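Exercise: predict the fold of this chain.
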Amino acid sequence: MSTRENGSEEEPVIRDNRKIDPETGQVRETAPAEATGQSDKEQADRSSSSSLASDLASIELATQLAERTADLQRLQAEYSNYRKRVERDRAVVKEQAVAGALAELLPVLDDIGRARDHGELTGGFAKVSESLETATGKLGLSAFGTKGEPFDPTVHEALMHSYSPDVTEPTCVEILQLGYRIGERVLRPARVAVAEPEEPAADDN
């Protein structure tokens, strides 16, 4: 073997990394890790790094999704509360408006009641009064106050007071003017005469 001019006696090493063998035309087997300059450890490190990045991205997406879901749930709860509050306020305003209108009609209903008691509710006036009472009833107006019922200061207004041996507790013995309510709301208390059990005898001096 002749010596090269540069004084090196070793022949250069040539590695053919092509996947297709030019002589046979067949696909070559994958070169070992040493030939490609890539170790199993490097491949594992790259795979692990890629997997970690994917996991971090998934965690970030899950966190963002949870935050958006919580925001939507909070907005939905706020809207639901707002809608309930508006509906409740609307009902209160409607009740107040109806109560105000019916309160103005109470003197008219008193006149109709007195005319009925005196037998003057006849003819066309009777039909008009019946229509008015029916209309106010549909709006929720109801009369109360019955002779003989126990006196209740929350719904009765005592205009007269007496003692009677016929009662065992304060009792409405006369209804001077009917009371009116809408549902549980009292528009006007019933004005009554109240009797209590017989007055105890005064102590002798």
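Check your answer against the key: Residues 1-5, 31-37 have pLDDT under 50 and may be disordered.
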